[in-house]
Amino acid sequence: MLYELKMQERFDAGEDSERNRTILKLITRAQQRGADYTAIIADLADFYDISKAEAQRYYDQTQLTNSH
Fold first, then answer.
1. Confidence category of residue 44, pLDDT binned at 50, 70, 90
2. What is the pLDDT of residue 19?
3. What is the C-alpha separation between 30 and 60, in angstroms, rounded?
4. What pTM was computed for the model?
5. Number of structural domains, the chain?
6. How many CA atoms within 13 Å lie on the side-chain side of 54?
7. Residue 52 domain-assigned?
8. Is residue 1 one of the residues assigned to a domain?
9. Pair 57, 40: CB distance under 8 Å
10. Can you tell me whether residue 67 is helix, strand or coil?
11. Which of 9, 10, 15, 63 has an alpha carbon within 20 to 30 A of 33's alpha carbon?
12. For residue 56, with 0-12 CB atoms within 10 Å meaning exposed, 13-18 middle and 19 or more buried, which class applies?
């Protein structure tokens, strides 16, 4: 049972990691296409069923990543 729980945790972490990469790519592409900040945040929140605050965190993370 413990093994199954550990494997599920790893699977969930992998899904979260993939989701994060996908969201960050979507933000970058939306910016490249000229989408404004407000539209990006609203679309992310709606599509992924997350709060606007969480969408803002993803957006901020993209800004940090792209500034390097």
1. very high
2. 86
3. 14
4. 0.72
5. 1
6. 11
7. yes
8. no
9. no
10. coil
11. 15
12. middle
**Structure tokens given for 66:** 């792209």
Q: Is the pLDDT of residue 17 over 60?
A: yes
Closest CA to 40 of 50, 30, 48: 30
Q: Higher pLDDT residue, 4 or 16?
A: 16
Report the chain's terminal Cα–Cα distance, integer Å. 44
Say what the pLDDT of residue 60 is. 93
Q: How many CB atoms lie within 10 A of CB 5?
A: 9
Domain that holds residue 33: 21-68
- CA dist list (Å): 49 to 6, 20, 54, 58, 67: 27, 14, 10, 13, 27
Amino acid letter, 28: T
List phi, psi (to 5°) of 67: -80, -10
